[in-house]
């Protein structure tokens, strides 16, 4: 049906017709609304239960969903049940699923103390991802990177519980490498091992040991997975940015998780070769550069790794590229003050970049450090305020006066591009709904019958306009990798309203 958004690396300035000073006022003025961040956090995490694939547990809270894809992997003789559907379709794409898991884990690592009663649900969301990633990496030198045929799936509009499209399992191996998706998988497993270090030490060790093996495979057999699986993963999750950043990203998480010197040395040795300073203001499922620099900078700011100072310099430059009013601004803002990057599903950029703003502001605070941008200072408080304004925009402080999180606030998207949400549930309509029989629901002007609480959609266009319509997938489709970084943001602001 709809190709997924890709990261666009060319920077953009403010729209020429819109005064930058007004955007400054929008971004740094106090919020017009007092938001219930705790409620938004609960709903943001609940969304992941609506995206679950496989056999659902007894404590499943999204009751209109049921078991689905119970034979995934059978055609290849492996068990690939479980995991998450990435968006509004029924494919399991390993690349964005691994990034989602990494960001959920990072949210818990940095912000679990402010999650309150939701920390358990956040940890369960991480584990639903890692349980699947362990299955996908169970054989040395092999990573299963996708289940389902995107073309046949996108030609149907059917519930995951009714799927009758191809569930082909696609893999990478030594002869057909995929350092990008394998590197991100290693990062996810390593990050999650930190989450479970004290909660479940045995599981944590399994995750870390697997991360080591998957990273070794990714680094030894180098290549982009879309070179081999182009017709399968493109244009949906084609690697547009190269695999080098995922190798550094994985090494950074393995160093954080294991404290083994070999990964620190790998980072130093490969910093230039793997282009750590490239596209400093990009971060998402395809491009990890800004995330690498912020993650590694924490140690530098703590005074532990002065030989990694270049990563802090890159992180500072990233901050300057986002701050309005500085001479180094490289990011476009909408008239209403929302970060905007071309390529569709814009909220993925908003939540990921805002997460880094908040995380780095905390690292700066602890180090008593301020970023200097061409003679102007960007304090930790300013970065937090900029991140908060992006979150508040999502929750309703925007020209449309609409929350872009389904189920939060008085007004939110009613017709999201999501098969399970838009079709009658199996509880309400037990009979099978075939591939093309669902088209009338897709084309219907009626609101979706099932509310996918917590789903954050792709969001408005560059002029802050939003068509609440299923066919406008770039604006109306939710994704797991939009929500994952938002978990950490909401957790922090819930404790610091």
Automatic annotation (TrEMBL):
Catalytic activity: Endohydrolysis of (1->4)-beta-D-glucosidic linkages in cellulose, lichenin and cereal beta-D-glucans
UniProt entry keywords in alphabetical sequence: Carbohydrate metabolism, Cellulose degradation, Glycosidase, Hydrolase, Polysaccharide degradation, Signal
Pfam families linked to this entry: Glyco_hydro_9 (PF00759)
Biological process per Gene Ontology, one example term: cellulose catabolic process
InterPro entries per the UniProt record, alphabetical: 6-hairpin_glycosidase_sf (IPR008928), 6hp_glycosidase-like_sf (IPR012341), Glyco_hydro_9 (IPR001701), Glyco_hydro_9_Asp/Glu_AS (IPR033126), Glyco_hydro_9_His_AS (IPR018221)
Signal peptide: 1-34
Active site as annotated: 417, 468, 477
EC number: 3.2.1.4
The keyword Signal appears for this protein: yes
Domain Glycoside hydrolase family: 37-490
Molecular function terms, GO-annotated: cellulase activity
Family of the protein in this entry: Belongs to the glycosyl hydrolase 9 (cellulase E) family.
Protein name as catalogued: Endoglucanase
Organism of origin: Helianthus annuus (Common sunflower)
